[in-house]
Amino acid sequence: MFKKPSLTFSLILIVGFLTVCPVLMLLFGSFSEGLTSFGSFTLDKYIEGYTDPILREVLLNTIIFTVGSALVATTLALFLAYVNTRTNLPFKFLFSIISIIPMMIPHILFSVSWVLLLNPSNGILNRFLMQMFGLDGAFFNIYTLPGMILVEGLLDLPIAYLIIAPAMRAFDVTLEESSKVCGASVLRTLFRVTLPVLRPAILAAAILVVVRSLASFAVPSVVGMPGRIYVLSTYIYRSISSGFAADFGKAAAIGMSALVASIALIYVYRYLTSERGKFVTVSSRGFKPTLLDLKQYKFPVFLIVGLLCFVLIVLPVLVLFYTSMLPYSMVPSARAFAMMSWNNWIDVLKDPISLLSIRNSLTLGVVGATLGVVLSIFVSYVIVKVRSKASGILESLSFLSFSFPGIVIGVGFMWFFVQTPLYGTIWALLIGYIATYLPYGVRPISSAFVQIHDHLEESSRICGASTFYTMRRIVIPLLVPGIVSGWILMATMFVRELSLSVVLSRPGSEVLAVQILHFAEDGLWGKLSALGIMMIFLSSTLVVAATLIGKKLTRMEVVDT
Amino acid sequence: MEIRIKGLIRNYYSEGKQIKALDKVDLTIPANEIFTLLGPSGCGKTTLLRCVVGLENPDGGEIMIGDQLVWSSEKKIFVPPEKRGLGMVFQTYAIWPHMTVFDNVAYPLQTRKLPKEQIRSKVRKVLGFVQLDGFEGRPATKLSGGQQQRVALARALVAEPKVILFDEPLSNLDAKLREDTRKELRRFLSELKITAVYVTHDRIEALALSDHIAVMRAGRIVEIGSPKKIYFNSDHRFVADFIGRANLIKGKVIREEGNHAVFDSAIGQIVGLNSQKIAPGQEAMLCIRPEFMKLATTEVGEGKNVFCGKLETLVFIGEAYEGEVRIGDTLLTTTIEPTEDITEGDEIYISFDPDHCFLLPV
């Protein structure tokens, strides 16, 4: 198909540039005085950054925030996974909704919707509860660490669920059965057998949530900053966003420790999810577990699952849409509905910067995902089908960025782009996006390649098909589903991208999430909500379009015969 | 169609070491026969098959299919697999998961650009032949293992190739289904008048299906013969041992008696077939299969090849007993009628016909 060694080599160069370059630039940058004096060696920024008296509090906040989010997300995920695989709860389709749909709602919008509901001065839910029960103060102040943990935990629930649920499903039920035969009760079996055996999966999920909340910028900026609660990502943001005094050297020095922590945690995560880390419990025998009958608890448990669905999916969109129609925040009432208008929508559509950000994000989504997928196809081909030592290096390189906190790697890229004409253009964002989100393309496409056993191609040749005909009828159709999901993942990530963009975006290269952040900082909730709904609509359109094109490509195969 | 292979060489390199997967193989596969390549894993049988199909390129030698030279290292001829007009059934079946049964089977005809009507009737006919009528619209992944195997067979047959190749097609089926499918395959192939090359490591499959068997070891063909020849009177110790259970007794030839020879061993003098004419005075090996030994609890009178020993172990396995008889220092395995009334420790007389044991060179 290709001249293999040279293909592998050039891919290593490209992917190596994308993933290693920002790390090296971050490292060199942290030893420099500022963006204009790159390469001058100095320890000043480390000393300045790490002796800052605020840093202690920031680090403590970071630890509470990440560990707390991990606890919330993992506990909820564990509950959902257990209820789904082990009980006779009706309407099991809700679980696949919980695990997929929330990923379509951008984190910044999810955070904003909770601020709109629970902020202390005019949060809709707070005001509603105050009126209901005649409270003096707000029922719950979202601008606190518990508020941040609640929102981040809910955001990371789907990813934790996607790790724990398969482990729960692959669990060898005879282990539980033998515990019951030994006389243990359901609860005792759960705590003495099931949970300990699943410990690697649970730990892996928790670690991944820690990494993601460490990298999270949406929640700390929208929920944390108004209450002056800073974590590492917002602390870094503050040092580069303060107008003339932007200090990229200090940002890099602080960012280094976030990056190192993140890489170390991902290393542990990969160990836990590799074969070595697992207990030998996953059996391939198709034993169906006997489902636990919930009896009278069926309804309450169902209520919790349904409520989670509502809170994760329906509520954010509803709140945003409601807010977008109103001039200012108010509790739903006859008066509120009477005041509804499209003014915010019209304002946004007249605002040149908002329009530019829509155009930029759309371009980045479509062009970026397409380029990213093309690169992912070649990378996956080499990883799966060539299998040499060099392709092993390529695999490690292409998954390296999985552990990159966006804002930190953005600072690294900043040091690079400042020295190129790409600085301040959307092409800088494009390169940064592809580098950071490459694993999202490589993962689905390489598993599609794995599915294509060599025999499938070989038997086509024997049936009289040329190499080209084999590509067209066998290889491409089998790859299409993987390519489509890779494209969808990348495109939706790019349309909503915030943490990298917040560093790299400059006047002229505004993108949707950054514009939304600006609206949030200015308290323009109505405009923000209108633009947010447009953003959701935009990425849903891309998802639908990609799915339809994918269907058409596979259908062509059938019609063709 | 006949397949002629001359001096075929194929080398692999693994960690700097050269492995001879095919070591100058010469072989003629007769037309319209079921021909089996049998051997332990790593003997080169699959490599040989893949060279014939064209999925692998040998490092030397020639392959002729009918009167077409499809590979020649010397003349630099390589006919790609799609131009060789063969059919093949893979171990994994290689059924395309994104297509229906019809599309899978129609594929070879579509590559040959046949008119649609003709494709439809041919596919229907071949699906009928493998007893999959009415499965046309079924997605290929919604079939059982046995059904997928038959789809693979139908796809290999539909373009009416002159040669069909099988690479361990039954090894992914469970034991009972494998037995049924083996019988079915035998019936299909004998109806077809087609050259079939069959690769397997399962000796029972080879014996049950083949007209001729070539036993391979370490990249070479050790022996070629009909199943009965190889089973009853193999020329080679490795083959005799590989093709069935065998007692191998060491000794020396004393004298020849026509087709037979008298052989002196630790348990006494034995008369056995000597088709390889091993000369008196030579060291040799005698092979006797467990099922050819007759047992008696009382002396059966004077005769050739009668020995007295002690029944050391006796294991009931349903269709028979498996017994071990000790004669001096020699332990022989025998198969005993399941109705026989004996117990471990009994004194026992065993005898076997001189035509049912054979001498092998050491």
Structure notes:
The complex is a heterodimer of chains A (561) and B (362). Chain A is mainly α. Chain A folds into two domains: 1-25 and 342-561, MetI-like (MetI-like fold), CATH 1.10.3720; 52-87 and 110-294, MetI-like (MetI-like fold), CATH 1.10.3720.10. Chain A has 25 helices and no strands. In chain A, helix 17 (352-386) packs across helix 22. Chain A is globular and about 75 Å long. The two termini of chain A are 25 Å apart. Residues 277-286 and 557-561 of chain A have low confidence and may be disordered. With 362 residues, chain B is of the alpha+beta class. Chain B has two domains: 3-237, P-loop containing nucleotide triphosphate hydrolases (Rossmann fold), CATH 3.40.50.300; 245-356, Beta Barrel (OB fold (Dihydrolipoamide Acetyltransferase, E2P)). Chain B has helices at residues 45-53, 101-111, 116-129, 145-157, 175-192, 203-209, 227-232, 237-243, and strands at residues 3-14, 17-29, 34-38, 60-65, 68-72, 77-78, 87-89, 163-167, 195-200, 212-217, 220-225, 247-257, 260-265, 268-273, 283-288, 294-296, 306-316, 321-327, 330-336, 347-351, 357-361. In chain B, the strands form four sheets. A six-stranded mixed beta sheet of chain B has the order 7-8-9-3-10-11, with helices on both faces. In chain B, strands 2-1-4-5-6 form a five-stranded antiparallel beta sheet. In chain B, strands 14-13-12-15-21 form a five-stranded antiparallel beta sheet. In chain B, strand 18 and strand 19 form a beta hairpin. The longest helix of chain B has 18 residues, at 175-192. Chain B starts with a strand and ends with a strand. Classes of the chains: A mainly alpha (561), B alpha+beta (362). The A-B interface holds A 451, 453, 455-456, 458-466, 469, 473-474, 477-478, 554, 557-558, 561 and B 53-55, 80-88, 90-92, 94, 96-100, 102-103, 106-108, 110-112, 155, 159.
